[in-house]
Amino acid sequence: MSYVRKAKKGYYGYASFRDSNGKWRQKSVGCFKLKREALKAAADKENELEAVNIDLASMSFVDYYERWYKIYKANQVSSISLSRYRTIQKVIGQYFDNTALVDIKRSEYQEFINWFGKNHAQSTVSKLNSIIRACIGYAIDDDVITKDFTHNVQLVFNMKKRKVEYLNNDELIKLKTAVIESLNHYNTSRYMILTAIYTGMRKSEIQALTWKDIDFLHATITINKSWDDTKKAFKPTKTESSNRIIKVNRELLKRLADLKANNTTMVFQNVLGTIPTSSALNKTLLSIMKDVGIEKQGFHFHSLRHVHVAYLLSKGIDIYAISKRLGHSDITITLRAYSYLIDEYKAKNDSLIIDKLAEL
Fold first, then answer.
1. Could you give the residue ranges of the DSSP H alpha helices within the chain?
2. Per residue in 281-337, pLDDT tens?
């Protein structure tokens, strides 16, 4: 039975349960100001433990991981994040097979990271490790293991630098001109491409725009939601800092006003009532680029966000202002994501700095 113990800070709640061997055990649920809160938390924990009639200590690493993300994450994350959790499950299963969680040692986990890191970038390895670390923290709380075998692991990743191709300013102007010349309110994809060029917004943010989000008087766009391509429904923005209001130029607003002829609530909803998908946008973009003789390996709709940053940097716009415009929570995210661009303009500015100092 659940019970509480009084302490100086409040009341500690404890849940009682039988383990797989039939022995009674207790598990703390934390400290609460009120006794009834502690009792409720303890009772809820008991119900949870009783509902899971399974010997956690004998579970394989991959099975425990699957159980963990389905209980604690599946109902709280986006479909994209959930897909990432499932992918990591496959990776764990591929490497560890049915190895029991309790049998995995730190050296074995390091070997796993070494194996995975050979063919993956730093950000991918870091994300995998952080998710697994969270899972292992719960395993310790569940008394399945006593030590965190992910502690002090050395991240290994593919150091091969991926070449990023982006448009220079002349190519950007050529693309923008071609997009404008081919505008037709029946085809909203081209308007979305123009919006990405002028704003640097994410695809899902552009897809989610409604006419209420556009202030033609003050020339601003409010970004407070994004679009789920799979569910065809609104969803929250990527992060809290992604909620923002950005200034836009009159040229873009003039073009977007054409779409009001479609009589839709959402800006880029076409006459068929649908919003262009990622596939449709990329197809249209590559077609326009091909028509004007622009070839860029691996270029796609999201690359326009990089192009937007490159253009602003080339015009001397402060990186902090760019970071806010992109909706990044921290300037370090911008510095890391666009380091290849920043380094390029830093080299140019270094020469300018030397020339200016010579004038002293």
1. 35-51, 61-72, 79-96, 106-117, 122-141, 169-181, 189-199, 203-207, 250-256, 278-291, 303-314, 319-326, 331-337, 339-357
2. 999 999 999 999 999 888 999 999 988 988 888 888 888 899 999 999 888 888 777
